[in-house]
Amino acid sequence: MTTRLKLFQLVSPALPVGAFSYSEGLETLVQAGVLTGPAALEAWLRAELQRGAVCAEAAALAPLGQALGRCRAGSSQASNTAAAELLDLDGWLLAQREAPELRAQQLQMGGSLLQLLQELGWPLPDALAGALAAPLADSLAWPAAFAWAAECLELGSPEREEAYLYGWVANQLSAAVRLVPLGPTQAQRLQLQLAPLIADRARQLAITDPRSLWSGGVGAGLAQLQHGELYSRLFRS
After folding, report:
1. Is 222 buried (19+), middle (13-18) or exposed (0-12) by CB count in 10 A?
2. Cβ distance 233 to 27 under 8 Å?
3. What distance, in Å, lies between the first and last C-alpha atoms of the chain?
4. Phi/psi of residue 94, each to 5°?
5. Average pLDDT for residues 40-53, to the nearest whole number?
6. How many Cα atoms are found within 13 Å in the side-chain-facing hemisphere of 176?
7. Helix 142-152 vs helix 3-11: crossing angle, to nearest 10
8. Residues 71-118: pLDDT tens digits?
9. Rounded to whole angstroms, what are the CA distances from 94 to 89, 100, 216?
10. Could you give the C-alpha distances from 83 to 1, 147, 177, 202, 221, in angstroms and in order?
11. What structural domains and CATH numbers belong to the chain?
């Protein structure tokens, strides 16, 4: 299977992880009148790709993948050390998401992807699976699970970072079609317009330490926190 086909599978809307059921705060912003059309939505997505929490997650794919590789190939002691490093970064990324419902989303999607990969013949390395089986342990969150999928499919940088950012934008546009006065043709136009920025950010983030980044997505965080309090909701909370 070529790298291109593997990428297609990883970003396919048919990937059974439930991403379609979340808006990540877009529903709040639409109801508040912040996002009223294609221009406002494009500006929002560009700002998130430049300064949002999704950037730290994309930048973390390389170190997460390296730790996963050491978990799989190293000795028992080396594997345990790598597993501890991975869980530390996984927890740090999850803590960057202010809203409880978004943290729940990250864990649900991560768990669904890990279950799919196991059923496809790619269970987590023993050291990591053992650590997650400990009392009070949770599943890996979405970025770490995505990094494991990239390792299993032998995807490198910046392809995996491009796939992560592309998939995030595609899910946001899918939600926007159901929320904003936005037709599917306009959504596809926005995806094309954002492609150069996605590619550029992927190249930058592939060589960036995620812990050196900061998130300017205060508005996104507030929207996510307020989503569960909406009177009516189309998307999961």
Report:
1. middle
2. yes
3. 37
4. -65, -35
5. 95
6. 28
7. 150
8. 988 678 888 899 999 999 999 999 998 889 999 999 999 999 999 999
9. 9, 10, 16
10. 29, 13, 40, 25, 29
11. 19-227 (1.10.4190.10)
Task: Answer whether 138's CB lies under 8 Å from 110's CB.
Answer: no
From 33-37, 76-80, 154-158, the region with the lowest mean pLDDT: 76-80
Length of the chain: 237
3-state secondary structure of 111: helix
What tokens does 154 get? 């032998």
Task: Kindly state the tokens that stand for 114.
Answer: 């890990």
CA Rg, the chain, in Å?
17
Q: Is the pTM of this model over 0.85?
A: yes
Residue type, 14: A
Q: What DSSP designation does 124 have?
A: P
Structure tokens that stand for 226 in this block: 């307020």
